[in-house]
TrEMBL record:
InterPro entries: Gfo/Idh/MocA-like_OxRdtase_N (IPR000683), Gfo/Idh/MocA_oxidoreduct (IPR051317), GFO_IDH_MocA-like_dom (IPR055170), NAD(P)-bd_dom_sf (IPR036291). It comes from Microlunatus endophyticus. Residues 141-235 form the GFO/IDH/MocA-like oxidoreductase domain. This is Dehydrogenase. Residues 8-123 form the Gfo/Idh/MocA-like oxidoreductase N-terminal domain. GO terms for molecular function: nucleotide binding.
Protein backbone atom coordinates (compact mmCIF):
# COMPACT_ATOMS: atom_id res chain seq x y z
CA UNK A 1 0.00 0.00 0.00
CA UNK A 2 2.87 2.39 0.75
CA UNK A 3 3.63 4.53 -2.29
CA UNK A 4 0.82 3.13 -4.40
CA UNK A 5 -2.63 4.72 -4.58
CA UNK A 6 -4.93 3.27 -1.94
CA UNK A 7 -7.83 1.34 -3.46
CA UNK A 8 -11.08 2.52 -1.89
CA UNK A 9 -14.71 1.55 -2.13
CA UNK A 10 -17.23 4.28 -1.41
CA UNK A 11 -20.62 3.46 0.05
CA UNK A 12 -23.20 6.17 -0.64
CA UNK A 13 -23.66 8.07 -3.90
CA UNK A 14 -26.11 10.83 -2.99
CA UNK A 15 -25.36 14.55 -2.81
CA UNK A 16 -22.70 14.19 -0.12
CA UNK A 17 -21.40 11.10 -1.87
CA UNK A 18 -20.84 13.08 -5.06
CA UNK A 19 -18.72 15.54 -3.10
CA UNK A 20 -16.56 12.69 -1.84
CA UNK A 21 -16.29 11.15 -5.30
CA UNK A 22 -15.02 14.46 -6.67
CA UNK A 23 -12.53 14.69 -3.80
CA UNK A 24 -11.27 11.16 -4.43
CA UNK A 25 -10.79 12.02 -8.11
CA UNK A 26 -8.54 14.96 -7.21
CA UNK A 27 -6.35 12.99 -4.78
CA UNK A 28 -3.60 11.00 -6.54
CA UNK A 29 -3.03 8.91 -3.40
CA UNK A 30 -6.36 7.12 -3.74
CA UNK A 31 -8.25 5.38 -6.53
CA UNK A 32 -11.90 4.38 -6.56
CA UNK A 33 -12.39 0.67 -7.30
CA UNK A 34 -16.09 0.39 -6.49
CA UNK A 35 -19.21 2.33 -5.58
CA UNK A 36 -22.11 1.03 -3.49
CA UNK A 37 -25.62 2.50 -3.33
CA UNK A 38 -29.10 1.05 -3.02
CA UNK A 39 -30.01 2.96 -6.19
CA UNK A 40 -27.75 1.70 -8.98
CA UNK A 41 -28.87 4.43 -11.39
CA UNK A 42 -27.84 7.07 -8.84
CA UNK A 43 -24.51 5.30 -8.35
CA UNK A 44 -23.78 5.20 -12.09
CA UNK A 45 -24.81 8.82 -12.59
CA UNK A 46 -22.72 10.03 -9.64
CA UNK A 47 -19.70 8.05 -10.81
CA UNK A 48 -19.96 9.35 -14.37
CA UNK A 49 -20.53 12.91 -13.21
CA UNK A 50 -17.34 12.93 -11.14
CA UNK A 51 -14.98 11.31 -13.62
CA UNK A 52 -15.27 7.70 -12.43
CA UNK A 53 -16.91 6.30 -15.56
CA UNK A 54 -17.07 2.52 -15.66
CA UNK A 55 -16.32 1.92 -11.98
CA UNK A 56 -18.09 -1.23 -10.70
CA UNK A 57 -21.34 -0.48 -8.83
CA UNK A 58 -23.46 -2.65 -6.56
CA UNK A 59 -26.15 -2.45 -3.89
CA UNK A 60 -23.92 -3.83 -1.12
CA UNK A 61 -20.29 -4.50 -0.30
CA UNK A 62 -20.91 -8.23 -0.60
CA UNK A 63 -22.32 -7.86 -4.12
CA UNK A 64 -19.47 -5.64 -5.27
CA UNK A 65 -16.75 -8.28 -5.01
CA UNK A 66 -13.65 -6.15 -5.67
CA UNK A 67 -10.28 -6.02 -3.95
CA UNK A 68 -9.91 -2.89 -1.85
CA UNK A 69 -7.72 -1.39 0.86
CA UNK A 70 -10.34 0.75 2.63
CA UNK A 71 -13.96 1.90 2.67
CA UNK A 72 -15.35 5.43 2.70
CA UNK A 73 -18.77 5.46 4.36
CA UNK A 74 -20.95 8.31 3.07
CA UNK A 75 -24.32 6.77 3.88
CA UNK A 76 -27.10 8.35 5.96
CA UNK A 77 -26.31 8.33 9.72
CA UNK A 78 -28.68 5.40 10.36
CA UNK A 79 -26.59 3.25 8.00
CA UNK A 80 -23.18 4.24 9.34
CA UNK A 81 -23.03 1.41 11.88
CA UNK A 82 -24.02 -1.57 9.69
CA UNK A 83 -21.80 -0.44 6.81
CA UNK A 84 -18.82 0.20 9.10
CA UNK A 85 -19.23 -3.11 10.91
CA UNK A 86 -19.40 -5.03 7.63
CA UNK A 87 -16.27 -3.34 6.31
CA UNK A 88 -14.36 -3.83 9.55
CA UNK A 89 -15.35 -7.49 9.69
CA UNK A 90 -13.88 -7.84 6.20
CA UNK A 91 -10.60 -6.43 7.47
CA UNK A 92 -10.99 -2.99 5.88
CA UNK A 93 -10.32 0.33 7.65
CA UNK A 94 -13.12 2.87 7.34
CA UNK A 95 -13.38 6.63 6.92
CA UNK A 96 -16.92 7.53 7.98
CA UNK A 97 -18.86 10.76 7.56
CA UNK A 98 -20.05 12.54 10.69
CA UNK A 99 -21.94 11.93 12.88
CA UNK A 100 -20.44 8.61 13.81
CA UNK A 101 -23.95 7.30 14.60
CA UNK A 102 -27.39 8.60 15.59
CA UNK A 103 -26.81 7.80 19.27
CA UNK A 104 -23.88 7.54 21.66
CA UNK A 105 -24.76 3.93 22.43
CA UNK A 106 -24.49 2.98 18.75
CA UNK A 107 -21.25 4.94 18.43
CA UNK A 108 -19.77 3.02 21.35
CA UNK A 109 -20.68 -0.24 19.63
CA UNK A 110 -18.96 0.93 16.45
CA UNK A 111 -15.81 1.86 18.37
CA UNK A 112 -15.85 -1.56 20.02
CA UNK A 113 -16.17 -3.24 16.61
CA UNK A 114 -13.15 -1.30 15.34
CA UNK A 115 -11.11 -2.29 18.38
CA UNK A 116 -12.10 -5.94 17.98
CA UNK A 117 -11.14 -5.90 14.31
CA UNK A 118 -7.89 -4.06 14.97
CA UNK A 119 -8.69 -1.65 12.11
CA UNK A 120 -8.94 2.10 11.91
CA UNK A 121 -12.39 3.67 12.06
CA UNK A 122 -11.90 7.41 11.51
CA UNK A 123 -14.69 9.96 11.54
CA UNK A 124 -14.53 12.84 9.08
CA UNK A 125 -14.94 16.09 11.03
CA UNK A 126 -14.26 18.33 8.06
CA UNK A 127 -14.38 21.66 9.93
CA UNK A 128 -11.07 20.82 11.64
CA UNK A 129 -9.33 21.13 8.29
CA UNK A 130 -9.93 24.78 7.43
CA UNK A 131 -6.65 26.70 7.26
CA UNK A 132 -8.22 29.51 9.29
CA UNK A 133 -9.13 27.09 12.06
CA UNK A 134 -5.65 25.59 12.03
CA UNK A 135 -4.22 29.10 12.45
CA UNK A 136 -6.74 29.87 15.19
CA UNK A 137 -5.73 26.74 17.13
CA UNK A 138 -2.08 27.68 16.84
CA UNK A 139 -2.69 31.24 18.00
CA UNK A 140 -4.87 30.17 20.95
CA UNK A 141 -2.32 27.55 21.94
CA UNK A 142 0.24 30.32 22.41
CA UNK A 143 -1.91 32.49 24.68
CA UNK A 144 -1.28 30.62 27.91
CA UNK A 145 -3.98 29.42 30.28
CA UNK A 146 -7.35 29.39 28.54
CA UNK A 147 -10.37 30.89 30.28
CA UNK A 148 -13.29 30.94 27.89
CA UNK A 149 -14.24 30.15 24.31
CA UNK A 150 -17.41 31.24 22.55
CA UNK A 151 -18.99 30.63 19.16
CA UNK A 152 -21.95 32.34 17.55
CA UNK A 153 -23.66 30.57 14.65
CA UNK A 154 -26.45 32.34 12.77
CA UNK A 155 -27.66 31.04 9.40
CA UNK A 156 -30.99 30.75 7.58
CA UNK A 157 -30.91 27.75 5.24
CA UNK A 158 -34.16 26.66 3.61
CA UNK A 159 -33.35 22.99 3.21
CA UNK A 160 -36.82 21.52 3.10
CA UNK A 161 -37.16 17.80 3.72
CA UNK A 162 -36.34 15.95 6.92
CA UNK A 163 -34.57 18.82 8.71
CA UNK A 164 -37.73 20.92 8.70
CA UNK A 165 -39.52 18.18 10.64
CA UNK A 166 -36.80 17.37 13.22
CA UNK A 167 -37.35 18.04 16.93
CA UNK A 168 -33.90 19.64 17.34
CA UNK A 169 -32.64 20.47 13.84
CA UNK A 170 -29.87 22.86 14.88
CA UNK A 171 -28.38 20.73 17.65
CA UNK A 172 -28.78 17.31 16.06
CA UNK A 173 -27.94 18.10 12.45
CA UNK A 174 -25.44 20.95 12.66
CA UNK A 175 -24.01 21.68 16.10
CA UNK A 176 -21.67 18.67 16.13
CA UNK A 177 -19.39 20.61 13.75
CA UNK A 178 -19.01 23.41 16.29
CA UNK A 179 -18.88 21.14 19.33
CA UNK A 180 -16.15 18.99 17.77
CA UNK A 181 -14.18 22.11 16.85
CA UNK A 182 -14.45 23.31 20.47
CA UNK A 183 -12.98 20.01 21.68
CA UNK A 184 -10.14 20.35 19.18
CA UNK A 185 -9.46 23.95 20.19
CA UNK A 186 -9.58 23.42 23.96
CA UNK A 187 -7.78 20.10 23.80
CA UNK A 188 -9.92 18.24 26.36
CA UNK A 189 -13.43 16.82 26.67
CA UNK A 190 -16.25 18.64 28.48
CA UNK A 191 -17.61 17.66 31.85
CA UNK A 192 -21.15 19.05 31.70
CA UNK A 193 -23.58 21.29 29.84
CA UNK A 194 -26.61 23.46 30.48
CA UNK A 195 -28.63 24.12 27.33
CA UNK A 196 -31.85 25.87 26.42
CA UNK A 197 -33.49 25.65 23.01
CA UNK A 198 -36.46 27.44 21.48
CA UNK A 199 -38.11 28.12 18.15
CA UNK A 200 -38.49 31.74 17.00
CA UNK A 201 -41.99 32.77 16.01
CA UNK A 202 -41.01 33.15 12.33
CA UNK A 203 -39.20 29.81 12.11
CA UNK A 204 -40.03 27.44 9.25
CA UNK A 205 -38.79 24.47 11.30
CA UNK A 206 -41.16 22.27 13.31
CA UNK A 207 -38.60 21.78 16.09
CA UNK A 208 -36.36 24.17 17.99
CA UNK A 209 -34.12 26.03 15.57
CA UNK A 210 -32.26 28.11 18.17
CA UNK A 211 -30.07 27.13 21.10
CA UNK A 212 -27.88 28.53 23.83
CA UNK A 213 -25.49 26.22 25.68
CA UNK A 214 -22.65 26.52 28.16
CA UNK A 215 -20.23 23.60 28.46
CA UNK A 216 -17.86 23.25 31.41
CA UNK A 217 -14.44 21.82 30.57
CA UNK A 218 -11.68 20.77 32.98
CA UNK A 219 -9.79 23.53 34.83
CA UNK A 220 -12.89 25.71 34.84
CA UNK A 221 -12.79 26.52 31.11
CA UNK A 222 -16.17 27.45 29.65
CA UNK A 223 -17.35 27.05 26.08
CA UNK A 224 -20.45 29.09 25.18
CA UNK A 225 -22.51 28.36 22.07
CA UNK A 226 -25.31 30.54 20.73
CA UNK A 227 -26.95 29.55 17.46
CA UNK A 228 -30.00 30.00 15.28
CA UNK A 229 -30.93 28.33 11.99
CA UNK A 230 -33.58 30.84 10.93
CA UNK A 231 -31.51 34.01 11.28
CA UNK A 232 -31.92 36.07 8.12
CA UNK A 233 -29.59 39.08 7.90
CA UNK A 234 -26.05 39.56 9.24
CA UNK A 235 -25.39 35.83 8.98
CA UNK A 236 -22.17 34.32 10.29
CA UNK A 237 -19.86 31.98 8.43
CA UNK A 238 -20.92 28.33 8.27
CA UNK A 239 -18.04 27.87 10.72
CA UNK A 240 -19.49 30.45 13.12
CA UNK A 241 -17.71 33.41 14.73
CA UNK A 242 -15.26 32.48 17.49
CA UNK A 243 -13.58 34.28 20.41
CA UNK A 244 -11.03 32.77 22.79
CA UNK A 245 -9.86 34.62 25.89
CA UNK A 246 -6.72 33.43 27.67
CA UNK A 247 -4.15 34.59 30.19
CA UNK A 248 -1.98 36.34 27.61
CA UNK A 249 -4.57 37.79 25.24
CA UNK A 250 -7.61 37.27 23.05
CA UNK A 251 -8.02 35.73 19.60
CA UNK A 252 -10.97 36.03 17.22
CA UNK A 253 -11.84 34.00 14.13
CA UNK A 254 -14.65 34.99 11.77
CA UNK A 255 -14.89 31.45 10.39
CA UNK A 256 -13.72 32.34 6.89
CA UNK A 257 -10.47 34.29 7.00
CA UNK A 258 -7.28 34.28 9.05
CA UNK A 259 -7.81 34.88 12.78
CA UNK A 260 -6.79 38.05 14.58
CA UNK A 261 -5.09 38.26 17.96
CA UNK A 262 -4.21 40.91 20.51
CA UNK A 263 -1.65 39.85 23.11
CA UNK A 264 -0.79 41.54 26.39
CA UNK A 265 2.63 42.41 25.00
CA UNK A 266 0.95 44.28 22.15
CA UNK A 267 1.84 41.81 19.42
CA UNK A 268 -0.73 40.87 16.80
CA UNK A 269 1.20 38.53 14.49
CA UNK A 270 -0.54 35.41 13.17
CA UNK A 271 1.25 32.39 11.69
CA UNK A 272 0.82 31.96 7.93
CA UNK A 273 -1.84 29.64 6.57
CA UNK A 274 -0.37 26.13 6.21
CA UNK A 275 -1.93 25.63 2.80
CA UNK A 276 -2.96 22.04 3.52
CA UNK A 277 -5.99 20.26 2.04
CA UNK A 278 -9.20 21.65 3.51
CA UNK A 279 -12.59 20.24 4.50
CA UNK A 280 -13.22 16.65 3.36
CA UNK A 281 -10.04 16.74 1.27
CA UNK A 282 -8.23 17.24 4.58
CA UNK A 283 -10.04 14.29 6.14
CA UNK A 284 -9.12 12.08 3.21
CA UNK A 285 -5.48 13.20 3.26
CA UNK A 286 -5.16 12.41 6.97
CA UNK A 287 -6.85 9.04 6.52
CA UNK A 288 -4.39 8.11 3.79
CA UNK A 289 -1.45 9.26 5.89
CA UNK A 290 -2.60 7.21 8.87
CA UNK A 291 -3.05 4.09 6.76
CA UNK A 292 0.47 4.49 5.38
CA UNK A 293 2.27 5.43 8.60
CA UNK A 294 0.20 3.75 11.29
CA UNK A 295 -0.41 7.09 13.01
CA UNK A 296 -3.65 7.60 14.90
CA UNK A 297 -5.90 10.48 13.87
CA UNK A 298 -7.52 12.74 16.44
CA UNK A 299 -10.95 11.65 15.22
CA UNK A 300 -10.88 7.91 15.76
CA UNK A 301 -14.28 6.46 16.58
CA UNK A 302 -13.38 6.07 20.26
CA UNK A 303 -12.30 9.71 20.55
CA UNK A 304 -15.07 11.18 18.41
CA UNK A 305 -17.78 9.75 20.63
CA UNK A 306 -17.22 12.75 22.90
CA UNK A 307 -18.37 15.15 20.17
CA UNK A 308 -21.60 13.21 19.67
CA UNK A 309 -22.01 13.05 23.46
CA UNK A 310 -21.93 16.87 23.56
CA UNK A 311 -24.92 16.92 21.21
CA UNK A 312 -26.82 14.25 23.13
CA UNK A 313 -26.13 15.92 26.47
CA UNK A 314 -27.24 19.33 25.16
CA UNK A 315 -30.52 17.87 23.89
CA UNK A 316 -31.10 16.10 27.22
CA UNK A 317 -30.37 19.29 29.14
CA UNK A 318 -32.87 21.23 27.05
CA UNK A 319 -35.52 18.53 27.35
CA UNK A 320 -35.16 18.23 31.14
CA UNK A 321 -34.26 21.82 32.00
CA UNK A 322 -31.18 20.93 34.02
CA UNK A 323 -27.41 20.68 33.91
CA UNK A 324 -26.33 17.34 32.42
CA UNK A 325 -22.97 15.70 32.89
CA UNK A 326 -21.32 14.03 29.90
CA UNK A 327 -20.97 10.91 32.01
CA UNK A 328 -24.74 10.51 31.99
CA UNK A 329 -24.86 10.01 28.23
CA UNK A 330 -21.55 8.14 28.05
CA UNK A 331 -22.68 5.65 30.68
CA UNK A 332 -19.92 6.60 33.10
Amino acid sequence: MIGDPIAVVQVGAGSMGRGWLATIKKNPDVRLVGLVDLDLDTARASAAGTGHDGVPVARSLDELGVEADAVINVTVPQAHAPVARQALAAGLPVLCEKPIAPTVAEAQQMAAAAAAAGKLLMISQSRRYFDGFRQFRQVVGGLGTLGSVSCEFFKAPHFGGFRDAMDQPLLVDMAIHTFDAARALIGTDPLSVYCETFNPAWSWYAGDAAASAVFEFPDGIRFSYVGCWCADGQQTSWNGTWRANAQDGTAIWDGDNAPTVERLDGSTDVPPAPGLPEQIAGSLAEFVDCLRTGAEPATTASANIASLAMVEAAVLSSDQGRRVTLGEVLGG
